[in-house]
What does this fold into?
Amino acid sequence: MLAAVAEAQQDGARLTAACRIVGLSARTIQRWRQAPAADDRRCGPRYRPGNALSVHEQAQVVSLLTSREYGHLSPKQLVPRLADEGRYVASESTLYRVRRRLGVHPRARPRLRISPRRAARMHRATGANQVWSWDITYLPTVIRGRFLRLYVVVDVWSRRIVGWEIHETERADHAAQLIQRVCDQAGVDPVGLILHSDNGQAMKGHTMLSMLQWLGIVPSFSRPHVCNDNPYSEALFRTIKYTPGYPHLPFADQDAARRWVARFVDWYNREHRHSAIRFVTPDQRHTGQDLAILARRHQLYERARRHAPARWSRSTRNWTPVGTVVLNPEPQIQEITEETRQLP
It folds into this structure.
């Protein structure tokens, strides 16, 4: 190995890159060069932890991570799904460690570097059908430069898509008809309902505002030129555009777009476990089923902790239901006092 590394360095390779290929650290090569006649002196783990997974448990974890049913899920999504089925295999961190060891983890998406700016108007939702958010996004078509408009209304508290439509243009009357239809179909009393949106023409059109006033809905708008004031709709659009099932090719026509959006909405509301609401589906959250589901998960984890207490150094996973949801919370401003002014 020393001869191979030396030959690679003579050909212009760096020591770190050459050591990476042979599976050694640069410090090991340097130690060997200082004492060529010495022993290897490499040592692996000195002992096996008492709370480590058994061979059978490791095989079970590997089969789950590579199965057709669960292989596409991240451990963050897999753990709640197994808990709903009454199964506990390992913790989320253990599943991530096994994935890294096997090298099957997906490539991480780049983080969006944004500086959050909060709106002055803050709304709190303690239940379903109290605060809605809606927006419009573009769907590409086979004709270059031509886009379809997807209107989506989402409940801020439950993250449930309560209504959607697809049109070729952005018009206030389309939005007004959508809001009225959603209220009628869901049997929601619109009086006092808060509807948040940005400052687009379709959102602030005369027809839209007249319909909201007639229904008794309280309109709420983002600040001009601030995209972060409507975070729930923007996050939903990101989920739509980045879901694995999103078509790679543009939509052939409006009917094709409607068929795909209908399938996505059905999956999102009924099957998608949302990370912001303790990994329950929006339908379960909207109808109040999440309380019993989260209680069963907590009981399952307590039993698993009593069965193998050595594997739990702290409390179990937090399965407490999410209470109040705040739209555009106010920033935490530290109060400056005379004592804080005197601090170095």
Q: What stands out?
A: The longest helix spans residues 290-307.
